[in-house]
Amino acid sequence: MKFDTTTLETLIDTTYDSVEGYRKAAEKADTPGLKEILLQRAARRQETLDRLNQELVRHGGSLVTEGTATGALHRMWLSITDMFESGDKAAINRVEEGEDYLAEKLEAALAMDNLDPQCRTVINAALAEVREGERLADALERQFG
Predict the structure, then answer these.
(1) 16 three-class SS
(2) Alpha helices in the chain (DSSP H)
(3) pTM for the full predicted model
(4) Once rounded to an integer, what is the mean pLDDT over residues 20-42?
(5) How many domains is the chain built from?
């Protein structure tokens, strides 16, 4: 039975959108230190994206090099709302929303029983990295919120 790459493709699309979300949040932030933290998280999330993409290729899929249409629409909406909202608190709120959404997607994938052990390991590692992001967002909320 051939592995269905749809789950990985969806996770990759969402993770790509997350990388872009961190970059946008860094643009929104006022504090240089917060901008740097968010850009570092974007780099970490890019590493997670790369690992997921490698797993997709291992299963015969093609590299995903751009986000979803839904993500593009969401980013367009955020661009519109950017006119009304900026600063550290807005940046942190965006990060928190994105982390929660991505964690839900990863957890749903892990609940599936058709993942091979290596794929499950890659997705578990991605979830652990997202959980780090959630903890960071909580700490940033306490510090800047």
Answers:
(1) helix
(2) 6-28, 32-58, 69-82, 88-110, 117-144
(3) 0.86
(4) 92
(5) 1
